[in-house]
Every structure is written in C-alpha cells, then in structure tokens.
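Appendix B, example 12.
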Amino acid sequence: HDTGFYVPEAKAARFAANYQRGPDKTLSLIDDPRTSGYLKPPVFESGGGGLVSTSQDYLNFCQMLIQEGSWRDQRILSRRTLALMTQNHLGGHRDLTQMAKGSFSETAYEGIGFGLGFAMNLSEVASGQIGAGDFYWGGAASTIFSVDPSEELAIIFMTQLMPSSTFNFRGQLKNIVYGAIDD
C-alpha cells in the first residue's frame, strides 16, 4: 500500500513534484520531492488534507466503492455505511448552491449534493454534468476521482498542479470520459 500522510524514505524516489502556474503561464516548482515536507511524518494527520497516494491505491479504493464496500473478497465498508456515505446530507433536498458559495471551486454547485466525504451529482439537468448518481472528490493539486456505480466506472486523474482551480479539469474530464462510452 502506498497511501499515507507522508512518504517513507524507501519510496521517496517515486514521489512526484508539485507545480504552480504563474500569471505568465509558466510552471514553477513549489514542492520538490527531494526536500518535500511530505518526507517526514506530520505533526497532525488531517482528514481534510495532506494525504499522499498512488494511482493504483486510488483505483483499489474506487473498486471497493464500486463493489459496494468489498475489495478482494474482503468487506471494508458495510453496504449500509456506503449507502449513508453516498446520500445527500444537505437538509431539505438542497444542493450546494443553497448551502455554500463556490469561490474555491472550478465547477458550479447547481445540482450537486454532499454526502459523507463525497460530492455527488444529483441531477444531470441541474448540474450540466453527465453521471447523475456518481460521487467524487478532488485534491488541492488538481487530483480527481469519481465513481459511478451504475456504469461500474471509476475515473482517476492524478496531476500535481496548484491550485485546483488552475484549469477546469473536473468540469471537463467527466464529460470527455462519458462521451467515450459506447453502449
């Protein structure tokens, strides 16, 4: 497993650099993997950020979610827990536009609900995004994962570009992937 709040020394050579796009559209290194703060255990492991992982670990996680909480014939989450996590918990059947301003996000909040750890597409019409019923989240460095149980589909997009609003990856990636599905 390659997921945690820091990168052990034995795995440091695999750790990616992180970049920021400047006003002149050039990239500058903001976290060198050879000297990164992620090479040491943090003082506080925050559930709200700071996790480092690999594409393979993210795929394993997404497969577990698609398989209703099971992975490699082992129950990780109960079906009931996963159902609770993927329900909209914004009271009164509201979406995020009624609960928060989208100032930090590159996607709109219309038709988007929020469960326990995931945003979710409540309505393709309201959100303007394909995949009603999918749930997803992203990271500060523009990483994205999305799970659509009805399509048995996981989307994992790993990049290292700060801030996550630099490009509209999240808004466009799903439409590109769903557009490629040939039924």
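The longest helix spans residues 55-66. The two ends are 34 Å apart (CA to CA).
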